[in-house]
Design brief:
Length: about 350
Amino acid sequence: MVILGIETSCDETSTAIIEGKDDTVIIKANVVASSLSMHAKTGGIIPEVAARAQLKFILPVFQEAFEKAFGYSPTDITISPPQIDAIAVTYGPGLIGPLLIGIETARTLSFAWQKPLIPVNHMLGHVYANFVVESRKSKVESKNRGVPEFPLIALVASGGHTDLLYMKQHGDIRILGGTRDDAAGEAFDKIGRLLGLPYPAGAVIEQRAKRGNAKRFHFPRPLLSTQTDDFSFSGLKTAVLREVKNIPNLDEQTVNDIAFGTQAAVVDVLVKKTLRAAEKRDVKSIILSGGVSANQMLRETFQTDMQRRNIGAELFFPPKNLCTDNAAMIATASYFNFHPFDWRTLRANPELYYE
Ligand code: KG4
Ligand code: ZN
C-alpha cells in the first residue's frame, strides 16, 4: 500500500510518500520545509506567521515529494490521480492555522482523487517514526525482526508534550503520564532564552553542554523521587533562572556549564521514569520519539542504564531527521492504524490528546 502523508501542525511543512507491506514500511520520499529561521528571529512561534509559511510551502513540498517518489509531479492533480492508495494527514494537536492548511489540502485531494483519508494524531505519529525501515539501523542490537514488538513503552518528548505511553498493540494505548506544566523540549527552549541562545534551543544546549563542566551546577530533578509517571519541568527552569540572576556576568563557559546541568537534569528524569515504567510492566520494546529524542546524551544514557539495570527490552529511536516533525511518520502511523474518515466531516483539533 502506498500512502501520501501530510504534516503541517506547527512550523514544518512536510509531504511524504511511503510504501507499506506486512510490517515493513519504506520511505519513497519525505520532503520537509521549515519556517524555523523566521521564528528564531522572534524567539518563538507566531501562529499567524507559521500559517502563512505553510501556505507558501505546501505545493512546492508536495511537488518535490512526487518527483522524488514517482519521477513526475502532477501538474493538474484533478486530471491525473497518482499511484497512491490513501492520504494521511495530521489533524491535531497543533496550531489551528497551520493544521488547516494540511487538512484542507488532504480533504481536497481525497475528494478529487477518490482516495481514503486517514486522520492522524501528531503525537502518535512521532511514535511511529520508529516503525519505518530506516529506524532499524539505529537499534542497539538486532534480536528480532527489527520492528518494535508489543507490549511496549513509548516516551514522546517534544516541544509541546512529554508523554509516557503503554501500548499493548496498535491502537491499544494507555497514557501512563504526561507533563503537569512545561514539556521537556519547552524547558530546553525556555532555558535557552534565559541563556541568550537561539530558538529552538534543544540542539544548541546539547552542543554547548559538550564543553560544559559537569560538576559546577546540579539542578533539581522534578517528580523523580515520587512514584507518579507524570513529569514536571517548570521547576528546573525556575532553578536556572535563580542561578542566572545571581551571576553578574554570564560568560561563555558559564553558559556551557548551565547547558550541561540542564541537559543532565532532563535526561536523568526522562531515563529513570521511563525505565521504572518499563520494569513494572515487563515490556518487549522501549521507544523514544519526538524532537528531544534526537539528543545523543539521552540515547546513550538509555543504552547504558538499560544494560546496568539488566532490562531485556529492545531500545528504539529514529534517525535524527525523523525525530523532529515530518510527514513520513504520519503516513506510517496511518498504515498501522488504517481508519478512513469521510473528507466532508474531518476537522482540525488543536487540543487533540490520545484517542
Ligand atoms: O517534535 P518536535 O520537532 O516538535 C514538536 O512536536 O513539538 O520537537 C521540537 C523540540 C524543541 O523543543 C527542541 O528544542 C527539541 O525538540 N530538540 C532537542 C534536540 N533537538 C530538538 N532537545 C534536546 N536535544 C536535541 N538535540
Ligand atoms: Zn512534533
